[in-house]
Amino acid sequence: MQAAERVFAEKGFAATSMGDIAEQAQLPRSNLHYYFKTKDDLFRAVLQDLLEVWKQDALSFEHFDDPRVVLTSYIRAKMAHSRSRPLGSKIWAEEMLHGAPVLRANLDESLVPWARLKEAKIRRWVEQGRILPVQPSALLYMIWASTQHYADFGYQVALLNDGEPLSDRDFESAVQTVTSVILRGIGLEP
C-alpha cells in the first residue's frame, strides 16, 4: 500500500502501472495481483485507507465536547498526517480534482454522513453560544485546506523556507499558528 501510494502520487493514476508498483514494493507482480486484481482496485484501496486514517483524526469529535479541545486535537492530527503522509494527500487531491471517478459512490456512503455528523456538532456549539456563528461546512473546509496545504504544497512550503523542509520546531509553530487562527476566528482563545 505504501509503495502504491508513493507511485500513484509521483506518476498519477493514468501513468502508473501495476508493474511500477510491484517494482517499488520489491514484489513479483503476481503477488500484487493476488491481492489486487486491477490497478483500480489498488487505487481504491489506497484512497479508502486514507479516508479511514482521516476519519480517525477526527475521533476527538466523538470523545470530547469542548470545541477548543476537539478542534485543537483535530488540527494537530491532520497536520501530523500532512507531514507523515504527504503523498496520500496529493493522491486524494488528484481524485477530488477529477470529480472522484474511483470513489464517487463510496463517498456518498462514507464521507457525506461522517461530515454531516461533524457539522451537526459544530452547529450545536453555535446554537449553545460556545463559538461564534459559523457555517459548519466552511469551518471544516478551512481546517482541511489549512492542514493539507503542508502536504499538497510541500515544495512551495520548503521553497519559501529557504529551500528546506520545515524543522520540527517550525512545523510545531505552524501547527500552533493554524490552530490559533482557526480558534480565534470562532471566538475561542487557543
TrEMBL record:
According to the UniProt record, which residues make up the DNA-binding region? 17-36
**Stored PROSITE patterns:** HTH_TETR_2
Entry keyword DNA-binding: yes
Q: Mind telling me which Gene3D superfamilies this protein's record contains?
A: Homeodomain-like (1.10.10.60), Tetracycline Repressor, domain 2 (1.10.357.10)
- On whether Hydrolase is a keyword of this UniProt record, the answer is no
> Which residues are in the HTH tetR-type domain?
1-54
* Keywords annotated in UniProt: DNA-binding
Q: Name one Pfam family in it.
A: TetR_C_3
Q: How is this protein named in the record?
A: TetR family transcriptional regulator
Species whose genome carries this gene: Pseudomonas parafulva
